[in-house]
Amino acid sequence: MTQEQFEEGVLYAEDNFRNDNAPHLAIDKKLIREKFDLNGKKILDFGCGMGGMSLWYADNWDCEVYGLDIDGHHIKISKTLQEKLGIKNVTFEKRNILDTPLSEDEKFDYVFLNDVAEHIQFPILERIFKQLSTCLAEGGRIFVTYPPWKSPYASHVTHVVKIPWCQYLPKKMIHNLIEKNNIQIVGEEESDLLEAYYGLNHLTHNKLIDVLKTSGLSPVYRKSHCILNRLPGLKNTNINFFPFDFLVTKEFLLLQNSNN
Ligand SMILES: C[S@@+](CC[C@H](N)C(=O)[O-])C[C@H]1O[C@@H](n2cnc3c(N)ncnc32)[C@H](O)[C@@H]1O
User: Fold this and answer.
1) How confident is the model over 164-182, as pLDDT tens digits?
2) Ligand 1: distance of its center to the CA of 182 in Å?
3) 133: domain range?
4) Which residues line ligand 1 (CB under 6 A)?
5) What is d(CA 242, CA 244) in angstroms, rounded to the nearest whole number?
């Protein structure tokens, strides 16, 4: 990671922290404010990235946050921003929980995965959810948010390719388009857009439910945020059926242990 990338990363993370309309987090922040009271809670921000959301939880509620990520560059940026903001109630750590599992003492009231699940291959994701189910405190919940694969922005490269739903272009064509517009990103694990694109698992609601089968977790709430929710009377309706499912930009799923 160059110094310039590092500095850009800190600025990006700070925008995610400060800006309630930050592009991929606006609906997440709105829903979390509406639906969750995090006061007094222990929170795991799984795949915290550059830390903007972990710091946002810590600043908006009287809670204790643990932000972990597999990517060392992201954690370095998180720690730098934490120091800059002077927020104390967050601990950031580079950690792969499949190598260093969460222990009996690490229990959380809420686990958040904001835009993380679509980046992890299914056999690994299945093992991660199995483990996360065991780290929930009594009555604990896991909140998973992601752009479903049919979404106009699911490719994670629309900002450079400038074509919504470009994941449906012929393979060779999308590859060439990304290659032509490719940019370096700060990740230690994924360092450019082509790598990031091929790292996606094409997640959908049904695939996620399938992944969760062995975890003992079950859904208690689902929201499919669709462009049509802007129409009068449709604000709270889940319009996630064909062909309108192509207009769903973000899925939200709240999970709890089935034996709760
Ligand atoms: C798109 S970023 C989202 C970051 C952050 N949650 C946010 O919303 O800004 C996805 C993050 O998941 C992390 N990640 C991917 N696989 C992971 C794993 N197995 N364990 C922990 N973090 C992982 C990546 O390193 C990356 O930081």
Assistant:
1) 999 999 999 999 999 999 9
2) 20
3) 3-149+201-257
4) 16, 25, 47-49, 52-53, 69-71, 74, 96, 114-116, 119-120, 189
5) 5
